[in-house]
Structure formats: C-alpha cells, structure tokens
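Now for today's protein.

===
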Amino acid sequence: MIKDITDITGKAEHALKNFSAGYNCAQSVLSAFTEDFGIKEEDAINYATGFGSGMATGRICGVCTGAVMAAGLYTAKIPDIKERKKEAYRLSKEFQKRFEETHGATDCIDLLGYDHTDPKEEEKQPVEKRPKTVCRKFIRSAVIILSEIIEEDKKRKADMTLFQSEH
C-alpha cells in the first residue's frame, strides 16, 4: 500500500522532533509535509500557530487540523476551485474517519480525557497524561494516516489515468 515506509517514518520523526522543540501539534504535523508541497517550513509553522490544543479550546485536535491543512496543500494544484474543494473535503473526511477509528475521538478533550486548556486541570494530571507525552502518539498517527491517504489517492489517480489511456 505504502510506497516508501522510510519516507513516512521520516515524516513522523520530523513532526515529533518539532513537537519536542516546542511547536504545537498542528505545526508539527503540517511541517512534516512542507517538502512534499513546496512550501517553506517556517511558513507552515506560522500558518498553524493558532491551531494547536484544539484551537486553544480543547475541541478538534491540532493534529487533525494540521493534517487537514496538509491535505489542502496536496489538492492545491487542482485548477478548478470547486473540484479542489471537493477533493480537499473528501480527503479531510477520510482522514478524520480513520483518525477517529484509531483513537476513538478527534477532540483534544476526548483524546486526553480532560481539558488541558485549563491550567488547574492540567496541574492535576500525571506527566504521562499531559500533552507533551500523550500527544506524541497522535502526531505520529496523524502523519502516517494522512501519508497513507495521499499514497492511496495518487494510486487511484494513476489507475484512472491508465484506464482512460487504454480506452
């Protein structure tokens, strides 16, 4: 299914390195795809700044918003805006579906089991339940899931092109 598992592992490790360096979850996930889509990593990090910690509300997890932004970059070369949005929405839905199937939720509060945007709640949690520990698995998973979806989409498009050229 996946062309190059080392490439995907490298992307996940890059995202985790950025997370360890202090970037938020959305920044970390989006930064893993910058080379693929020809944008500067610094720009991606800036774009995703406000999306971490469920957009600072504990709602939709930043790994999800970072992945959806990357999916949008993947579809950016589709010339027709309606088709581009349709494809971006399709990829976004598929990502969220797979992420939720894997982790049981897409909201930070549900993934962590508490509201980490509330400093008092955060203080009550042991280190192993805090974002700097727990969210690493979500970051890795988001990068892998989106990479798989993109690879599958590329294969689907290549198969369609081959089919059309044969007929």
